[in-house]
Amino acid sequence: MNRVGLDAVEPPMNADLPARPGEEFREDLRPLATAPARGAGHGNAAARRVLSADELASLTRLSDARSLGALALTVGVSAAAIAFGLAVWPSPWVLLAVLVVGVQQHGFFILAHEAAHYRLSTHRGLNDALGRLIGMTGGISMCTYRVIHRLHHNHLYGPQDPDTAIHGGYPRGTAYLWKKLAQDLAGWNAWKTFAYFFGAPAIRDESAAGSATTERSQRLLNDTSAALRHEARADRWWVAACQLALPLAALALGGWQGLAQYAVLWLLPLLTVLQPILRLRAICEHGAVTDLASPLTAARSNLTGRARSGRLADTLLNLAGRALLFPHHVNHHLEHHLYPAVPHYHLPRLHRLLAGKGALAGAEVRDLSETFARIFAPRAAAGAAR
Predict the structure, then answer these.
(1) Among candidates 118, 200, 190, which has minimal Cα distance to 163?
(2) What is the DSSP letter of 327?
(3) Average pLDDT over residues 121-141
(4) Cβ distance 302 to 321 under 8 Å?
(5) pLDDT above 90: residue 50
(6) Structural contact between residues 305 and 352, judged by C-beta atoms closer than 8 angstroms
(7) CA 335 → CA 5, 28, 42, 72, 154, distances in Å?
């Protein structure tokens, strides 16, 4: 693929730590398989070339203040919901707190995703410390997720993409998706989520694994550095320790009632409310897409403001999606795959720039109502279930 002009204008992904082999989120410059040979909007590489060096530098510039502001907002809303739940304990109003906390836990997961991309802080050490702390409280290993998520970005919809089992094969039928979401809400599938974030696919050194290493594990990790695998193993122990310490702290501070409150106001939303949000958001991002040849059509951006259709109902659904499914601008998923070095708070501006230059013509940019119509459509011909 011709990269002339791209390396010269794009800053490194980490200002204080240049990407090393096996640690970088690589650029995906595949053109659309069905697109004409040239013209903005007719391929991923063309979509990247429309931005100037100054625009790229501005878009990839990190702001600690904005990242900490996003974190403070999520912490603040969560704390307020928990305080409300404690104030009305025990009563049915506690369920409202459970709902709000579950939605905010998704926001924490998105910020851990920012840290996995080295986008949460200008300082690598602080970035990883915050990302790991966020992950530990939610029972996930940010360092393990970094390894897995690299494979998703670097091999989107390829045989090494570990996320295809989650969002591939859609539409699978309305009944199928509703069944999965109901199981998620009941906590039935939570173990799969935490297995994924805790090391599935397996993260191990091939030299140490011996015959236990599967062929798939070797393929998945063949471009992952030993340093990232080491960080992932160590981080998982910290996550396990935190998950043991939190209930013990609740018991010590509040007795059996404190333990019950911790279980209801933090663990319950983590195992129930969060689960269908994670699944539905992932499917909205990649499910029932039009063409797997490029991120322009294999990833989707869902609008969270005024609907392109002009219908008030669609605009209201878009706004509901912003509140429940797409915190911290994560709805701009297509743009994120094009430019993984852009932090979440610059994604709306990136979207406007690309759209204004015609680079998103024919891309997967949709009102949420249109996305729902696609992913809840009658079953497609094939697709393995997760």
Answers:
(1) 200
(2) G
(3) 95
(4) yes
(5) no
(6) no
(7) 20, 12, 15, 25, 15
E strand intervals along the chain: 301-302, 365-366
pLDDT at 207: 43
Longest dimension (CA), the chain: 68
Q: Which residues contact 311 (CB under 8 A, 6 or more apart)?
A: 369
Residues 6-19 have pLDDT tens digits of: 332 333 344 444 46
Exposed e or buried b per residue across 277-289, where buried means at least 16 C-beta atoms within 10 angstroms of its C-beta: bbbbbebbbbbbb
What's CA 348's distance to the chain center, in Å? 16
DSSP string, 249-295: HHHHHHHHHHHHHHIIIIIHHHHTTHHHHHHHHHHHHHTT-S-TTSH
* Cβ-contact 115, 127 below 8 angstroms: yes
Phi and psi angles of residue 158, each rounded to the nearest 5 degrees, phi first: -95, 180
Residues 11, 57: contact at Cβ < 8 Å?
yes
Tokens, residue 324 = 């429940």
Residue 302 pairs in a beta bridge with 366
Q: How far is CA 215 from the centre of its chain?
A: 27
Contact 102, 270 (CB under 8 A): yes
pTM, full prediction: 0.86
